């Protein structure tokens, strides 16, 4: 059984036991969360598609960890002007493990 869920503006194809990284969720480690924006649920030949979301479908997950992605370096330079700037950004994420999918 698999499902397509939306979290933080991104869509993920998940099945039970998968571990994914989603944008930061304000929840404690080992907390149980529910993802309610379920767009599609599939089980073999049977597929249910929502428009835009399925009513009553819920994906439950457990928060495994919080962290930061690798640094994205931003360089600005104007030639012959002596202007250089180097900055960086690290986006935060939450690693979650899918425990159950119910349609």
In brief:
This protein is mainly β.
Can you lay out the helices and strands and say which pair or pack?
Elements: E1 2-7, E2 10-15, E3 19-23, E4 32-35, E5 38-43, E6 46-49, E7 58-68, E8 72-78, E9 83-89, E10 92-102
Antiparallel strand pairs: 1-2, 1-5, 3-10, 4-7, 5-6, 7-10, 8-9
Report on this model:
The protein has 103 residues and is an all-beta fold. The chain has one domain. 0% of the residues lie in helices and 65% in strands. It has a 4-stranded antiparallel sheet, with no helix packed on it. Strands 3-10-7-4 form a 4-stranded antiparallel sheet, with no helix packed on it. Strands 8-9 form a two-stranded antiparallel sheet.
The quaternary organization reads as single chain
Contiguous low-pLDDT stretches (5 residues minimum) are: none
Strand order, sheet with most strands: 2-1-5-6
Q: Give the integer mean of the pLDDT values.
A: 95
**What percentage of the residues does DSSP assign to strands (E)?**
over 45%
Any idea how many domains? 1
Tell me the structural class: mainly beta
Tell me the span between the first and last alpha carbons.
10 Å
Largest sheet: 4 strands, antiparallel
What would the keywords be for this entry?
mainly beta; four-stranded antiparallel sheet; 103 residues
């Amino acid at each position: 059984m698999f499902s397509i869920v939306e979290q933080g503006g991104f869509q993920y194809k998940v099945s039970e036991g998968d571990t994914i990284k989603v944008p930061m969720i304000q929840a404690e480690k080992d907390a149980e969360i529910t993802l309610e924006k379920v767009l599609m649920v599939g089980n073999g030949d049977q597929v249910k598609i929502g428009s835009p979301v399925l009513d009553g479908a819920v994906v439950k997950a457990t928060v495994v960890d919080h962290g930061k992605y690798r640094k994205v370096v931003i360089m600005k330079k104007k030639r012959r002007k002596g202007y250089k700037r180097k900055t960086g950004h690290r986006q935060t994420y939450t690693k979650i493990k899918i425990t159950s999918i119910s349609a």
